[in-house]
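<goal> How does this chain fold?
<sample>
Here is the protein in question

***
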Amino acid sequence: MSPLAFAALFATTLATAIGNTGLISVMPAVGREMGISDFLVAGIFSLSALMWAFSSPYWARRSDREGRKPYILLGLFGFIFSMVGCGLVVLAGAAGMAGPTALFVAFLVVRASYGVFGSASATAAQAYIAEHSDGAARVRAVAGLAGALSLGTVLGPAVAPFLILPPAGLSAPMFLFGLGGVAILLLVAAFLPRDSAGSLTDTAQSRSQADTSSIWRDAGVRPFLIYGFVMSSAQAANTYTLGFLVIDRLGLEPTAAQGAIGAAMVACALAALVAQWGLIAPLGLMPRTMLRWGGGLAVLGNALVVLLPGYTPLVIGYATASLGYGLARPGFTAGASLAARSTRQGAVAGAVSSIAGASIVVPPVIAVALYQLDRAAPFVLLIVLLTGLCAYAGISPALAQIRER
C-alpha cells in the first residue's frame, strides 16, 4: 500500500474517532442537563450501532462492485451530517424549544443516520488495506489504522471540554467536529488513489455477495469473529459507563465533571495507543499472542475498577483494560483477515465492521442498567465474560493454527 493511500485512510479514521469519542464524552452532561435519563442516553448510541451492524455488510457488497473510495467518502458525509444534526438538537434543547422526550427522539433519529452511512467508510477502509497488503504487513497496517482510532480517542475527549464555547455551549464541539469532517472529506477526495475493486468480474462479485452472508460459517474465520464480538461488547460496556462512573465517584455536577471524564478517556486511549504503536510492531506481535494478552489485561483492568475506590484507581483500571483492548482489536481483525481467502476480504471487512456496531447495540444499555442497580455489577459481569474469552483463545484450534508470517 502506498504511503499516500494509508495516510488518507488514517485521516478518515482519525477524524471520525475524534468526533465520535468527543460526542460520547459530552453526552452524559448533555443528557443530564436536558433531563434525558442515563439509560436513554445509552439507547441513542445503541440504535446507531444497530443501524451500523445491519448496514456494514451492504456497504461491503457495494464496495466490492464499485470500489472502496466512493464508500469511504459516503461514510465521511454520514459523519458530517450526524455531527451537525446533533449540534442542532442540543441548540434546540438549550433554547427550550422542545422537552426531553422530543429531544431524545431527535437525537435517536439523527445519530441513527451515522450508523447507516458512517459504516460505509470503516468497512471500505479495512477492505482497502486487506487488498493491498498481506501477512505481517497486513497486521502492521491494521494496527496502524487501529492506532489512528486510538489517537482520535485521545484527542476527542481531550479537546471536547475546550470546545464548549459560547454562544453554542455544549453543541459547539459537534459543529466543530463536523467542520473537521468536511476538511477530511475534501482531503480524501483529492488524494486517496482509487482502487481497482470495481473491476471485479461478475463471478467474483457474485462470490463476494454470497461470502458476506456466509462468512460466519467459515470455520477458519468464525473463531476470530466470535472473539471480536465478545471483546468489542466488553469494551463498549466499559466505554459507555465511564462518564457516569466518573460523575458519581467525584460527586460533581455533570458539566463540572466534564474535564475529569475527558482526562479518563484520554488515559484509556493513550493506553490503547501504546499497545498498537508501541508494542505490536516493535515486538512483532501476531494475532494469537495479541488475543491472549489482550483478554488478560482487560480482566485485570475491570478487577481494579471493582476492588479499588476513588477516581485515580478508576483511571488506572480503565487504562489497563484499554491496553488489553488495544491489543485484542487489531488481533482479531488481522486474524480474521489472514484466515480468509483473498476473494473474501470484503466479506470479512463487512463482518468485522458489523461486529463493531452490534457490540454497541445491547451491551452498553445492559451495562448502564446494571450500573444503576449496583455500581460494581457491570464490571463483575465483564470479568466473568472476559475470563471465559481468555480460556476460549487458549483452546480454539483455529486461533492456534492461523498463519503468523
